[in-house]
Design a protein that fits this description.
Structural class: alpha/beta
Domain GMT-like wHTH: 281-354
Protein name: Three-Cys-motif partner protein TcmP
Radius of gyration: 22 Å
Oligomer: single chain
Largest sheet: 8 strands, mixed
Strand order of the largest sheet: 3-2-1-4-5-7-6-10
Number of helices: 16
Strand content: 15-25%
Pfam families: GMT-wHTH
Helix content: 40-55%
Distance between the termini: 58 Å
Mean pLDDT: 89
Number of domains: 2
Number of strands: 15
InterPro entries: GMT_wHTH (IPR054339), Tcm_partner (IPR031009)
Length: 378
């Protein structure tokens, strides 16, 4: 598939990807705006930047992410007055199409800051521009067709500043092939860092396809954390056949709040949940072959982890969640379910106990402030 043909029809995977970005943009803005309003700095601005924006619409009429983000901004008084938006694409045809689509958005003139549309190749000049300026709180979306232009320096040039988060498209298929292709070594090195890229090439040689994917994704997450971006969360997309990965959407933030918000969004967009634990992937095959995905029992694993990690300690549900969930596939409700199960099995003691806590729709609840006493290891 060529980059131009990509915009002919919006596939399911593209729809899910766009929905994750749109949902996070709205939630991120609602968290950031009150703090910006209280700041002594003027003018009061937040930003949305998309450096590989593409066309304004797919040929089947579906709206692209830039159009949906701007429609969200128009619908909200604060966003109308505060949002600075920048859309870039190296393809002049895409830029023209995007300009036309944006101009056709009802109410677009209500935005205080008209959208800026660039026609630049993403490279050192753009990175240098971001590095040399202190950015207003920015949601940065990087969705390259392959990997050219995507680099650690680019991501870090934005997330270095307060309130700045990044969501980027990690084209696993092309990056996987590129790691063994000398012709694109420069681009792969820019993404992983030269030393880590060389180490990764050596690591991959004896690995199976499944181990290879896990290793590549683990390394990109590690190098992002090494930059100081403490919270990294990948979401996997599978091919329609369900037997191979096509790409990942990777979220990068320096703040736990952004991580928690995105975790909940990705959990809801997951195509499968086992024991209520989200898969953090969109896999069309899970809808056709659900029995294949009941082989693991992740909630049982969480219960065992909690007993081991917090043995001999007494702490609240909220403290347990905050200390344990980062880097793991569990969301808050999974912790509450696991603790309810452990209490029912007599493996922990809760204060107040189950018979003193309120019920919701006939089920026992486990509030954030409930204290849990874990038995010491035998």
């Amino acid at each position: 598939m060529t980059r131009n043909s990509f915009f002919e029809v919006q596939k399911e995977q593209s729809l899910i990807k766009a929905r994750i970005v749109e949902k996070y943009f709205w939630a991120w803005a609602k968290v950031i705006i009150p703090t910006v309003k209280q700041s002594s700095k003027k003018p009061k601005k937040i930003a949305y930047i998309d450096l590989f924006a593409g066309t304004g619409r797919y040929e089947d009429g579906s709206k692209s992410t830039p159009v949906k983000v701007l429609e969200t901004a128009i619908s909200d008084p604060d966003l109308r007055d505060m949002l600075v938006s920048i859309f870039n694409d190296v393809d002049a045809t895409h830029v023209k199409s995007l300009e036309e689509a944006i101009n056709e958005i009802p109410g677009i003139q209500r935005l205080k800051y008209p959208p800026k549309i660039w026609n630049h190749e993403v490279g050192d000049n753009i990175v240098k521009t971001f590095q040399e300026h202190r950015l207003v709180p920015t949601l940065f979306f990087v969705d390259p067709w392959g990997y050219k232009g995507l680099s650690l320096q680019l991501i870090n040039s934005v997330v270095k500043d307060w309130g700045c988060d990044c969501i980027f498209f990690f084209n696993y298929n092309r990056i996987n092939m590129g790691l063994s292709n000398d012709a694109v070594q420069e681009h792969i090195n820019a993404l992983f860092g030269e030393v880590r890229a060389d180490q990764l090439r050596q690591q991959l040689e004896p690995l199976s396809p499944r181990e290879r994917e896990l290793t590549i994704v683990e390394v990109i997450c590690e190098v992002l954390k090494d930059m100081g971006t403490q919270y990294v969360l990948p979401f996997r997309f599978k091919h329609e056949s369900g037997n191979r990965t096509t790409h990942h959407l990777i979220f990068v933030s320096k703040h736990i709040k952004g991580y928690e918000i995105m975790k909940d969004i990705m959990a809801k967009e997951s195509s499968e949940q086992t024991q209520g634990v989200p898969s953090f992937e969109y896999n069309p095959a899970t809808l056709r072959q659900p029995l294949l995905f009941e082989l693991t029992r992740p909630l049982d694993a969480l219960e065992a982890m909690l007993l081991d990690t917090f043995s001999g300690k007494t702490m609240t549900m909220q403290e347990i969640y905050e200390q344990h969930h980062v880097g793991k596939p569990y969301i808050k409700k999974n912790y509450k379910t696991a603790l309810i199960n452990l209490e029912a099995q007599g493996k922990i003691t809760a204060d107040p106990p189950a018979n003193k806590r309120r019920k919701y729709q006939g089920k026992i609840t486990f509030a954030d402030g409930v204290k849990v006493e874990f038995p010491p290891k035998q």
